[in-house]
Amino acid sequence: MLGGANHAPWGCGAFCVLRFEDMNRDALGAPAPTADRKGLVTKDKSATEPSVSKAKNRRSDRYPVVVPVRVKWLEPSGAGVIEFAEAKEVNMHGGLLDMKGRPAINSVIELTNLSSTKTASAQVISLRASKMGEVLGMAVELLTPSETFWGVTFRLKVAIEDLLKLEKDMKDSRSGGMDPRVLREFRDAVDYVRKTAWALQELQERQAHQRDTATVRSLLTDERVRRATQLSKALASDLDSHDVTDGTAGAAELFRAIEGLNQRLAGLFKIQESR
Fold first, then answer.
1. What are 9-65's pLDDT values in tens digits?
2. Which pairs count as long-range contacts for 172-178, CB under 8 Å and 24+ apart, including other chains?
């Protein structure tokens, strides 16, 4: 998934390691050291050969996704390193990185999600090993837990699991007493998300096959209009029942938004009438 041309302007392959001091040396025209420069950029055993240890108990389940990331860290010698890698299993607390470099255990690294350009600091926790002793990846923990750093695909994975759990609870007869209005809002929201997901999938498939996407974009717009109409009617009902008042949070902002929308719609229909 990681092509060097897409993410690494230096023309390297799926994994790319740079030393800042080497970049400076090249710029000055100084001779390179005689040490082996293949693979890792340091001979410090504490950085290149950390002991394989078991991961800490996870605070939440990890989800199998592939997220291209850029990893930056400092070696014990003070040299800065950049490597392009992939996160293969993630949760809001951290993830498992597939990479060649071996930052020191407990060291702090900087991660950049190459899809979203979001950055986060993380601590190296351990190397994950298989039963055969093979290193599967490097476990890292985000210093600040994040539900958004790993991207939308991760959030979709979490949402799928949450929805399946919620469905089970809703079917459980002991979970009675659900508010009918909230249940209706939930049903409408799920229906809206389902249609949006279908339209986006159709859009991606048409783009991949270089087919016309205008009709799909039109469907997305139609669905937004339908959803906005539903919400407007529901809010009107809430206003009649005094569930929404001038003290409701966001009510003033909603008024300004609807007022602006009303003006634009009025202008649109005036244009149509003039024709």
1. 433 433 444 544 444 444 334 444 433 333 333 334 444 444 455 445 567 788 999
2. none
DSSP state of 232: H
* CB-CB contact of 238 with 244 (8 Å): yes
Grouping H, G, I as helix, E, B as strand and the rest as coil, residue 69 is strand
Sign of CA dihedral 36, 39, 41, 47: negative
Residue 272 DSSP SS3: helix
Task: List pLDDT tens digits, range 146-205.
Answer: 999 999 999 999 999 999 998 888 887 565 678 888 888 888 888 888 888 888 888 888
Return the SS3 of 228.
helix
What lies within 8 Å, CB to CB, of 77 at 6+ separation is 42, 44
**Tokens encoding 140:** 């890292």
The separation between the first and the last C-alpha atoms of the chain, rounded to the nearest angstrom, is 52
The answer for residues whose C-beta is within 8 angstroms of residue 216's C-beta and 6 or more apart is 199, 202, 203, 206
Could you tell me which of 64, 60, 57, 61 has the C-alpha nearest to residue 154?
64
113: burial class by Cβ within 10 Å (0-12, 13-18, 19+)? buried
| CA atoms 184, 187, 189, 191: torsion sign | negative
Q: Which helix (H) or strand (E) holds 110?
A: strand 108-113
